[in-house]
Amino acid sequence: MTVYGFSPSGNCHKVRLLLEQLGRDYRWVEVNSAIGETRQPGFLAKNPNGRVPFIELDDGRVLTESNAILHWLAEGTPFLPIDPWQKAKALSWMFFEQYSHEPYIAVARFISGWTPIDSPRRADLPRLRERGHEALAVMERHLSSHSWFTGDFYGIADIALFAYTCVAGHGGIGLERYPAILDWLARVSEVPGFVSLPQPDAAAQALIDQST
Questions:
Q1: What is the C-alpha to C-alpha distance for residues 205 and 208, in angstroms, rounded to an integer?
Q2: What is the crossing angle of helices 66-74 and 156-165, to 10°?
Q3: Is residue 63 within 8 Å of residue 69, measured between CB atoms?
Q4: What are phi and psi of 147, to 5 degrees?
Q5: In the chain, what percentage of residues exceed pLDDT 90?
Q6: For the chain, what percent of residues have pLDDT higher than 70?
Q7: Among 19, 45, 95, 125, which is 20 to 30 Å from 135 by CA?
Q8: What gap in Å lies between CA 99 and CA 14, rounded to an integer?
Q9: Residues facing residue 62 across a β-bridge
Q10: Nearest alpha carbon to residue 77 among 27, 12, 28, 18
Q11: Global pTM?
C-alpha cells in the first residue's frame, strides 16, 4: 500500500496514525500540497480531485478522502464497532468532523501558517475561529459524559477528530475552555502505537506566531 500525503496535514496524519496503530506495512510518498504538488499532471492522473491523502494498492486501485480511507482500513478491526448502531454513531462524528469541524479549524490553521501575512484570506479568520469554537463546544458536551467518539472504545472517529483538534491553537482557536477535550487528547496520546502530528516547519511556525 502506498500513501500519498503531506505530513503537516491533519487529514493525512489520520491515515498514518491508524496504519501505525494497526501495524500495517505501507510506503509514504510526501506530496507538498502547499506548493502545488497536488496539481501536477502525474498526481492528477491518480487523483483528479487534486488532494491528499489518498492510498494506492498494489493492484492499482485508488481510494481518496481521509475518512473513507479510515473506514476501509478499520473494517473488521477493533477501531470500528461491529454493532450497526454504534458504527453509524461513529460515522456521524466523522461526517461532523468533515462538515462542521475541519472546514473551520483546519482552514484557520492553514490560513495562519501557509498563506502570506498580507493574504486577503486572513479576513476570514474571525469567522472561522467563531465556527471552530462552536464545533469544539459540541465535542466538549459529548465528552462530558463519554470517553470516546467511536462508541465505548477508541477508534476511527477519535482519530478523525483528533487530527485537527490537537493543533487548533495554530489557527488561533485555543482549547483552554475545554477541559473534557484536553483530557480526551491526553487519552488519545496514550493509545499504543500513537504518533504525533509533525510540527510545522520554521516558515509556517513563524507565520502562525504572527497570526495568533
A1: 5
A2: 150
A3: yes
A4: -85, -30
A5: 99
A6: 100
A7: 19
A8: 16
A9: 56
A10: 18
A11: 0.96
Count the Cβ atoms, other than its own, within 10 Å of residue 77: 13
Terminal Cα-to-Cα distance of the chain (whole angstroms): 38
Place of cell 506548493: 35
**What is the rounded average pLDDT of the residues 21-34?**
96
What's the pLDDT score for residue 212? 82
Q: Is the preceding omega at residue 41 within 30 degrees of 0, hence cis?
A: no
In this structure, are residues 212 and 176 in contact, taking their beta carbons and an 8 Å threshold?
Answer: no
Handedness of CA 17, 21, 166, 87 (dihedral sign): positive
Q: Average pLDDT, whole number, for the chain?
A: 97
What is the C-alpha to C-alpha distance for residues 103 and 42, in angstroms, rounded to an integer? 27
Q: Are 132 and 104 in contact (CB under 8 A)?
A: yes
Predicted local distance difference test score (pLDDT) of residue 194: 98
Task: Pinpoint the alpha helices (H) of the chain.
Answer: 10-22, 41-46, 66-74, 84-96, 102-114, 125-143, 156-165, 179-189, 202-211
Query: DSSP class of residue 193?
Result: T
- In whole angstroms, give the CA distance from residue 124 to residue 47: 29
Query: Residue 34's pLDDT is what?
Result: 85
